[in-house]
Design a protein that fits this description.
The protein is of the alpha/beta class and about 130 residues long. About 35% of the residues lie in helices and about 20% in strands. The protein binds flavin mononucleotide (FMN).
Amino acid sequence: MIHILGISGSLRAKSSNTTLLRAAANLAASRDMSITVYGALVELPHFNPDLEGTEPPSVIKFRDTLRNCDGVLISSPEYAHGVPGVLKNALDWIVGSGELVDKPVALLNASPRSTYAQASLRETVTVMSGRLIE
Ligand SMILES: Cc1cc2nc3c(=O)[nH]c(=O)nc-3n(C[C@H](O)[C@H](O)[C@H](O)COP(=O)(O)O)c2cc1C
């Protein structure tokens, strides 16, 4: 069984990106794969390098969940030609701890116009040594 962690870059209750991840989770259920959509990005505090070593439980939980999955599926909107702050903030929390290193990562996007955020996410995942799956 392959365990994939779905991460939506949108906190919107009716988010198209979260819906896309849930649809992928439904499809995966009929295969040897599970996709769990992470629902607690909103609980992460703003990244602060001074908190390294005394991270709050929300950060520990996020890192543990990432460490224990086989791959990551990110679906994110674009805000003002960039990656939404809540998603970039989450990724910043794992730059030092390294949960994305060698982790297969695939990027989805519910909007065909959102090319800047997608390109930026590709760059961020690559520099964090995640393994981008085309
Ligand atoms: C504040 C704000 C800024 C946005 N900026 C862009 C943008 O620069 N480029 C773009 O293609 N879409 C932009 N959009 C549209 C969203 O990226 C798009 O509607 C997305 O699919 C919404 O995702 P969601 O349904 O998962 O919340 C913006 C939306 C908001 C609310």
